[in-house]
Structures are given as C-alpha cells and as structure tokens.
C-alpha cells in the first residue's frame, strides 16, 4: 500500500495554525465551559469518594450518617466555585458595537485574542484546581467517615484536614479572578489616523 502524501500548502500547518485562527470568543467560551465542567467533575468525584465510604461506614456505626454530610457539602463547594467563575467570565464576554468588514478598519485584534486567551486560561486554571480540590476533599471525607465510625473523637481532627483540602478550590478561584481581571473584549474600533 502506498502512503498518502499531501502536496498542498495547508497540510504542513500544525496546532499553532489552529490556535491562532480560532475565534477569541471561542477561546473565551471554552474557558467558561472548562471552568464549570471540570469543577462539576471534581465535585462529583469527591462526592462519589466520600459518599461510598460514608454509606459503607454507616452500616457499622449509624450515628455518623448526619454529621458526616459536612464532607459532601465541602465537595459540592468546588462545583459552586466553578459556577461563580463561569458567571464572572460569562459577564466579561461582550459583543462589539459594530462589526468591521476589513482587517484594516481599526479593530484591536490583539486585544480580542488577549481577552480570549486570558479567559481560557482563567477557566482552565479554576477547573483543574477544582478537580484536585474535589478529589482531595473526597479522599479526606472518606477517611473522616471511616475514622469516625471507629472512634468518634477523630471526627474534628480529620475535618480540619478536609478544610485545608477545600482551600485548594478557594485558591483556584482567586487565581482565576486575578487572571480574568485584565480580560476585556474591545467593544469599539480604534480611531483611524
């Protein structure tokens, strides 16, 4: 069999061409999607880890069912952080007041791409941080439920570890807000000189 060869000039273009020719609004919307989607995945993963251990440990010690629901709430907070960031980023996406038909009409294309890339990185930062936070809170909550079933005095001690794991999500949303502060889509054309 012969291998396919491409003689067109477009065949040698790589990912850099894809990334530089994608709409900045697309990058911004992908940032919103990744921020919210990955945060919800992190929360779901943490709730799965905590919930399965909580149900299993509650068979041995039914008294732990209600107070260990705090662990599930900490996991759910990571989804809320993603939702907050999605609202912040979504409000920053502004449509231009008028649309130019030619590239030389005075539009600040660098400003568009700066805002699009910045919003993409802010959403990705929040989403990846909240996956890590959700998993770590889930593991700590799982340990808390199992330890509490064995010895009730361990609940508060392990809950403190869980609070530190939840702080990862707070740090992520702070970094995302700082990243998104400079992301403003231009809404008007630059003056022609």
TrEMBL record:
CDD domains documented for this protein: ATP-synt_Vo_c_ATP6F_rpt1, ATP-synt_Vo_c_ATP6F_rpt2
Listed GO CC annotations: proton-transporting V-type ATPase, V0 domain
Protein location: Membrane
Any Pfam family hit: ATP-synt_C
Domain of life: Eukaryota
Keyword Membrane: yes
Residues annotated as transmembrane: 25-48, 69-91, 111-133, 154-178
Domain V-ATPase proteolipid subunit C-like residue range list: 30-89, 120-178
Membrane-related topology note: Multi-pass membrane protein
GO molecular function annotations of the record: proton-transporting ATPase activity, rotational mechanism
Keywords for this protein: Hydrogen ion transport, Ion transport, Membrane, Transmembrane, Transmembrane helix, Transport
Main location: membrane
KW Nuclease (keyword) present: no
SUPFAM superfamilies: F1F0 ATP synthase subunit C
Protein family according to the UniProt entry: Belongs to the V-ATPase proteolipid subunit family.
Designated name of the protein: V-ATPase proteolipid subunit C-like domain-containing protein
Organism: Fragilariopsis cylindrus CCMP1102
